[in-house]
Every structure is written in C-alpha cells, then in structure tokens.
Description:
- By secondary structure, the chain is mainly α.
- 74% of the residues lie in helices and 0% in strands.
- The protein contains eleven helices and no strands.
Amino acid sequence: ATFYAENFAVLTLSLCFLCFAIYTDRGRLPWLLGAGLFVGLSSLVRANMLVCLPAMALWIIWDLASKRTDSAAISTGGALKTVVYRLLLFLLPALLLSVPIAAWNWRIAGTPILRTQAGSCLYMGNNPDYGGLIVPLGTEWKNLIREPLLAGKTLVAEKEKYWIHRTVQTIRTRPGEWLVLQAKKLLMSIGAFEISQEIDIYRFKKMSGLLRLPIWPGFAFLGSTAAVGLLLSLLQRQRKPGFLTIFAVAYFVALFPFQ
C-alpha cells in the first residue's frame, strides 16, 4: 500500500503543479479546478498536502489583487466575489474528498483524521536517538509502537496525543541534541542521496533496465537547477513562478518536522 501511495502522491502532485501553472499563465478557471482536484487526491495519501492549501489560497488572493492594481478588468464591487469564487473552485475538491474519509474515521476511531501515525512520525522525526531516519522493522519497531498501549492509550486520538506529548517532552529535555538533529535533517534533505522513508528507491532502480541507465539526473542536479530557477525568478520579480516558491516553502515546512 505504501509503495502505491508514494507513486500516487507524486503523480497527482505533479498534475496539480501542471494545472496550476497553466491557470497562472492563462487564467482559465477549469485549470484551477483541476489543480484543486489533484491536490485533494494527493492529500488523501499524503495529508501533509493540506498544510499547503492555505499557502496556495493566499497566493491566489495575492495574484488577483496584484492583477487588479495593474488592470481595470476586475471592478471594485466584484473583486470580493471573484476571489471567493476562485478560492471555492480550488479548495472545494480537496474538502469534498477529505470530509467523507475524515467523517468515517471519526465514526470508527473517535477522531476526524485522514491517516494515522502522524504523531509517531512527529516523535521519530524529533528524537535525536533516531537521527531523522525510519525505525527499522523488528523488535525496535514493535517496542516503539507498543509504547502507547503500555501507557494505557488504546484509542487513535489517545495515541496521537501521547506521541505529541512525548515529542514536546523530548525537545524540552534535550534542546541541544534536538537542534543538532534539525541541522542534520536539513543537510539530508538537500543532499544528493535520496533517503526514502520506507522504500529503497535505489534497489528498485537497479531492477529496472530503463531506470538503471546512466542518463537520468539525480536529485543533486534537479534540486540545484530548481533552486537556481526560483532564485532567478525572484530576482527578476516574475509573478508567474511565485506559486512554486510559496508551495516549495510550505511543503518543506509541512514535511520537515516529521520522520
């Protein structure tokens, strides 16, 4: 399930970028609706995407406001209506996709969540003992997952609160080690070697006759060229690539605290 979830998240996220870029360039509302649909689908398997929705919504508002100052196309009376309508087009698909799942989980687990284990991932991502890496399957993993149960926490909501409390406790009691861990995680996130959470992508690459050809650029090349492109767009004060910058920052903030 995790293997397909990763691929699905990457595919739908890429389609969201494509639709949003076309909307930014042409202003066509169906592309904005498509971006909202794909970001909603992506959030079903990677709930971190929901953190990015407010950032992208703010960009839609800022983009419309800046265009209004440059053009008289949007009247003063219809400006608010235009903003609300476009925000609904973008946000409603994600809301309509998420609410039924959250409601069902609320019914069977007592809390309106899309996915579980957010609290444990937060704890592992901020515990210096784990170095920002996944806890290997086996005895260590079983002992970790059993912690809430041994503490009498059996419900999903209770387990999530337990891990959040453990995370805060770890940061308070080991602030120096925690800061070192954050620096290490930052270096790992921009390094050339791609560290997967649960799947060894390099092993799968060796199993594919096409992917193991030495023609594919790695993250070191793609990440550095993307950073240069974003920097140039900011220096040239280009408005259209702005959503990429905002989204990259928001998504990094959404991912960084977790394991």
